[in-house]
């Protein structure tokens, strides 16, 4: 009986020792790989920014291409550039959870279903040698059908013509809502306008295909077959971030030179 108890105790001790050793190995691996994971995430983000802006060139290191882009922090409350934080390290998702760096959106304003909006955002600018902004790349996000979609919208130097739009993270249904990743659908945004002559956000995703004779065709994008709710979510999030609660004040300031 004593031998049996000793055997059970020894088995438990060996199991605990193995678990402890494994946990130490996993912890060390996680800590040591963290810098590599962070670097890869940054590289992937930079690649997406370049791709959405139509600046990604094959065969050239992403880091080298990204040097032509200048990150700047924008205070969404004023539409002005800000030096409050480092634009390279500022994390909008973390800020949105911090009551001191964000605000709760009222239901009638929250058309993108994000609940809280951060006060600051990092934008990415491409400037000419004379210092004129040629491309502005703005972060956008909002809820689709199953997930929050995170992406960017790139605008030409008139701050109205869409140069590109794309999402780098979402969990929409492959083959349906997941078609937001389709090159053909992303291409359909290019050349469209964001704002009407009255200054309102005119972006609209139509059911089916855009009518080429419609007077609103320059604001419209083809719908996604079988993914009406995802398409509606994309339209809502673009309208939110291009609107008064988002980047509209900042874009006005850019046009007038007061940013």
Structure description:
The protein is of the alpha+beta class. 35% of the residues lie in helices and 22% in strands. It has helices at residues 2-52, 62-66, 92-96, 183-187, 228-242, 248-256; strands at residues 69-75, 80-82, 102-104, 116-118, 120-127, 133-143, 148-156, 162-169, 204-205, 220-221. The strands form 3 sheets. Strands 2-1-5-6-7-8 form a 6-stranded antiparallel β-sheet. The radius of gyration is 23 Å and the shape is globular.
- Please bin the fraction of helical residues: 25-40%
Number of strands: 10
Overall geometry: globular
Give the SSE string: HHEEHEEEEEEHEEHH
Mean pLDDT: 90
Task: Specify the biggest β-sheet.
Answer: 6 strands, antiparallel
| Tally of contiguous helical segments | 6
- Sheet-strand content, in percent, reads 15-25%
Major sheet: arrangement of strands? 2-1-5-6-7-8
Poorly predicted ranges (pLDDT <50, ≥5 residues)?
none
Q: What radius of gyration results from the CA coordinates?
A: 23 Å
Content-based structural category: alpha+beta
Short structural summary:
35% of the residues lie in helices and 22% in strands. It has 6 helices and 10 strands, in the order H-H-E-E-H-E-E-E-E-E-E-H-E-E-H-H. The strands form 3 sheets. The chain has a 6-stranded antiparallel sheet. It has a two-stranded antiparallel ribbon with strand order 3-4.
